[in-house]
């Protein structure tokens, strides 16, 4: 036996008759005439091959088959209401999925805080967060495998849009018992001969640090080299030496027996937000970027 072909109008008419117990009430709610609803129910019964109602005076009483069908219809109705709510939430940027990637330097503290606050007002949003090098982020963004990324600049990639972030000042991170920690400030000259945890060659940070030491007529005593600012901060927390890293990264380690010292010289870690090049940007990506910028403003103001 073939499956009967039912229309949404027939199911809707059936549900309203079940809820109201009469064709008249159903017709009023559907803004249709009584004969139109009666014909719709009659056609539904023909297609199903069994009666749905029996008349008792002015009321229609559902058959056992109608009661069973009504349970399924109510489930469908609840699903439609759920879809409608999700559609509304999507329009308000409170539902959907967001794919985010960040360079490792921002993966401790900063980006997790932004994700948590972003989701606190969007309980129906799913966020996928990854940490990877900037070139890989740019590649995945350009092929639309990511919706938004946070990268170190300069970096250019076709089919992407890059928006610079406010410069992140570099700081000196050192063990809390270091001789320079008490003052909370240090110069590159002060670090002459100090045991240094250095970021690997080829990075913008390493280039700036080496140039700053050269201008000061000082030389770092490199004891560890790593491509990751997060690993550098971990090493400082374990007492390996002093590291020059971005403030946004250093802030996540403030409670681990280290001191963040302001540098007298101005060094900065340039970062940016990167998006796929689309006709219309994903609203959730814009909303997430706005939350990120607000968090940076809080850091700048010392909050």
**How helix-rich are the residues, as a percent range?**
40-55%
Order of helices and strands: HHHEEHEHEHEEEEEHEHEHEEEH
Number of strands: 14
Give the oligomeric state of the chains in this entry, treating copies of one chain as homo and distinct chains as hetero. Answer: single chain
Poorly predicted ranges (pLDDT <50, ≥5 residues)? none
Could you tell me the CATH topology label of the largest domain.
Answer: D-Maltodextrin-Binding Protein, domain 2
CATH architecture of the largest domain: 3-Layer(aba) Sandwich
How would you explain this protein's 3D organization?
With 303 residues, this protein is an alpha/beta fold. The chain has three domains: 8-91, Orthogonal Bundle (Arc Repressor Mutant, subunit A), CATH 1.10.10.10; 95-166 and 270-300, D-Maltodextrin-Binding Protein, domain 2 (3-Layer(aba) Sandwich), CATH 3.40.190; 169-268, D-Maltodextrin-Binding Protein, domain 2 (3-Layer(aba) Sandwich), CATH 3.40.190. The protein has ten helices and 14 strands. The strands form three sheets. Strands 7, 8, 9, 10, 11, 12 and 13 form a seven-stranded mixed β-sheet that branches. α5 (110-120) crosses α10 (283-300). The longest helix is centred in the N-terminal third of the chain and has 28 residues, at 64-91. It is rod-shaped, with a radius of gyration of 32 Å. The mean pLDDT is 86.
């Amino acid at each position: 036996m073939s499956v009967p072909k039912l229309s949404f109008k027939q199911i809707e008419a059936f549900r309203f008759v079940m809820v109201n117990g009469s064709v008249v009430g159903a017709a009023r709610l559907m803004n249709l005439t009584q004969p139109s609803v009666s014909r719709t129910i009659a056609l539904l019964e023909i297609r199903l091959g069994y009666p749905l109602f029996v008349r008792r005076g002015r009321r229609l009483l559902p058959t056992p088959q109608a009661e069973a069908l009504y349970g399924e219809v109510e489930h469908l109705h609840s699903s439609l209401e759920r879809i409608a709510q999700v559609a509304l939430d999507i329009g308000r940027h409170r539902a959907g999925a967001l794919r985010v990637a960040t360079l490792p330097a921002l993966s401790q503290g900063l980006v997790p805080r932004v994700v948590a606050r972003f989701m606190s007002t969007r309980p129906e949003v799913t966020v996928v967060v990854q940490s990877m090098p900037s070139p890989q982020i740019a590649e995945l963004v350009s092929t639309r495998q990511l919706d938004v990324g946070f990268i170190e600049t300069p970096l250019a990639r076709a089919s992407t849009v890059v928006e610079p972030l406010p410069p992140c000042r570099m700081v000196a991170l050192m063990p809390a018992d270091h001789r320079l920690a008490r003052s909370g400030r240090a110069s590159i000259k002060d670090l002459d001969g100090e045991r240094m945890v250095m970021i690997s060659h080829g990075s913008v940070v390493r280039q700036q640090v080496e140039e700053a030491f050269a201008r000061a007529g000082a030389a770092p005593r490199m004891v560890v080299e790593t491509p990751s600012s997060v690993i550098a901060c971990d090493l400082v927390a374990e007492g390996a030496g002093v590291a020059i890293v971005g403030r946004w990264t250093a802030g996540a380690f403030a409670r681990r027996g280290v001191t963040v010292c302001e540098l007298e010289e101005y060094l900065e870690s340039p970062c940016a937000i990167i998006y796929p090049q689309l006709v219309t940007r994903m609203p959730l990506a814009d909303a997430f970027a706005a939350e990120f910028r607000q968090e940076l403003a809080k850091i700048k103001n010392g909050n």
